[in-house]
Amino acid sequence: MTETDTCLRILSDSYSRAISQITKPFINDTVILQRVEIVALCLRNWAGVRALLAGALAKVYQPKYDIRKPYTEMVGGTRKGCFSGRAFDERYIHTLTAKPYHLPINATTAYLTPGLRTKNIVLTPDVELEGRPPEMYKAVLQLFEDVQKNRVSAQNVLDETLRLLVIERDKRDQTLRNLLTDIKRIADRMPLAAEDIMTLLAQHLACKNSSRLPVLAIAAAYKVAAERLGERVLHLHSHNAADKQTKAAGDIEITLLGDDNVITAYEMKMKAVTIADINIALEKIKTHKSTIQHYLFITTDKIDADVREYAANLYNDLGGVEIAILGCLDFLRHFLHLFHRLRTDYLGAYQELLLEEPESAVSHTLKEAFLTLRKSAEGAT
Description:
By secondary structure, this protein is an alpha/beta fold. Helix content is 50%, strand content 8%. The chain has 14 helices and five strands. Strand 2 and strand 3 form a beta hairpin. Helix 1 crosses helix 3.
């Protein structure tokens, strides 16, 4: 079997054991078990658990590896036992974020975070890793030492970490299911007014780490009004994907029904739009100049009059391509009143897009917050 086949089988078997032994820890030592819990259930920072999973997987796959040496180039030239933690993380641990696992961990490698990037040293407990919370990183380093000193097996660390993540995933899923059930119970009541929906959206957009939400809010509008507008969302790009990588015109690309050419592009900003932002947009417009007709900035911040005027004055120079800056809430308010009979469908579409987003783009906390806010707005008890 290849390395890939073997490592994916190790993860699959470990996951199966975690499911079958969900109520009983795999580690008897209470101190070591507590360390695994600190890392696996660190809601503030999931980077540590990916590093721990990658190291444990590598050690199970190849016992000669030193779990404390997850770098192929080591300071001092000592290469014995070295392996690429980043390779194991990106190739195999990444699969745990998707089907059938959907475990609540980072979508990107731990080895690009400040704490673990280019350390190239033996990760012993006395090493100071940059990042918060410090107790989580200390627990990771101590667990590396525990495994390497045979105080606990890498297999048990892997199984226990997955067990704890499964419990956390299931707890989160159940919370969302309970909230959805509560909301469905009041489906026959009078639908929320457009202004009530606006209050709900404004409260949700005001939550922390909500940069993905304006994208979903605009996409939901096109989703429910596509037939009436004669337009649809062509692409809704990943939250972590840069426009340069995807060659996208913006965060959302709109096309006519039955066509694949971008005619309108939306770019979302959680800050004020600047002239520099508009100049970058000009380069994107040139790339799509054969089809793009409209470039819209949607911002949650104030709009500078001089920047708005600069954008407006480009119309003639661009041969009829218009650039405009709109406030996010103003846009949504106008949409909900313009398509008043679609307001409930819109709320459902926004909720659906929200719940479909991966944890890396929209956290469980944000999903739970929206359902809680909606439940309160709908009058559920």
